[in-house]
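Researcher: I'm preparing a figure for a lab meeting and need a structural model of a single chain. I don't have an experimental structure, so a prediction will have to do for now. The sequence is pasted below. Please return the structure as tokens so I can convert it later.
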Amino acid sequence: MKPNQLIFKQSIFYILNLSLLFNSQYGLAEISSTWEQEASYSTSQHDLQKFESLFQTEMTDTIGRFDVTAISRIKLDSESNLGPKFESKEHSLGYESRLNDQRDGGQHGEITLRELYFDAELAGGFWRVGKQQVVWGQSDGLKVLDQVNPQSYSEFILDDFDDSRIPLWMVNLELPFQDDTLQFLWIPDASTHELSEFNTPYAFTSKNLVPKPPLDNQGKPAIPVSFNERQDPQKFWKDSDVGVRYSMFTESAWDITFNYLYHYQDLPVLYQQLVSLGNGSGTSIEITPTFERSHLIGGTLSNAFGDFTVRAEWGYSTDTYFVSSDLASKGVENSPELSSVIGLDYQGISDMFISFQWFHSHLFQYEKTIVRDENNQSITFLVQHDFMNETLRLESLFIHNINQEDGLVRPKITYQMTSDLELFAGADLFYGSQDGLFGQFDHQDRLNVGFKVGF
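Model: Understood. Here is the structure written out token by token.
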């Protein structure tokens, strides 16, 4: 980022925070803040992976016919193991638009105007305009329809989705029709996933996600690999995303949605090309990260039957891109993909919540050169149990990929010491093959401890 851009953004940040303090002191706005402190210890490196302080302030106020919400965040990490490692964002595989520079603060943290939006009821509709999050879908742990906002993968999927999801500048309009709602989204902010950088703990290494060059007898790349300039969305109007969702509640108590999103996929397509180095010195592989468009068509449904709740979610993507072993096709194959999840929740035992989910993904134009399987399946199992008048919670989340036989186990204990102070401790335990989505982090197990206080 240019120095004048950084100064401008930080000036806006400090002005907003000063206005928050002024408004709160003179009763002109509602303000709340949280401080979350977390330490993560890597059991394989025998060292602190992070020691992070997260301060977040939310202000709500009314200006004429508009309700305004502003959320600022300061994140500080003394260890800086999770990135960013590069000073320039051009070296990253993730794209941040000019509207949405997520990180200002260097390797040890960020200073961010996380959300800023205006709410109003105009022309028979409910408008929310500004930087915000929109959550589609109901699945836990893994995503099917929750594709509107990109996500930070600096800690893979270990961070809470509300914290790792990247807010975007957009126009969000909801039109009510009796018990139904029609939602329109216009998103000129084309920012994509923030991916972990090379040589950080959660950088993707699975051959299902990134191309692998051939290795020599010593296990080193036999062919040099270089990256070309990333091909980003460039045009404000043409590269905008648009979405529509229709929500309805039937007489038989079914909650149903129909969703459509025309968007840039948030993972770059890594096109490969074999080029000659000249002068008879051999060849190299050039990789050109490129963002591609897709149509996402899907829906959700849910209903409660006594102590059970049944959930289902599906999404059909017209274009999805996968690593291929065929360099003649630039090392990438394109196929429509149908992703789905069926969930069953149970609350029939006092102070206990049990949830099971089955995820399935199918490629309609599968080629044998595609590295991943034609059908990919995962299951999740979540158990939560509350004690001591719901002040103590024990929980465990289990995610297992059936194809790769890898997964993630996340036990956690939370104690609500006071109404404003929460203590927690837990672990993130990976297992399985290095080629799997979770197994690639088999050596990144960690123990976590921390607290969260509101004021």
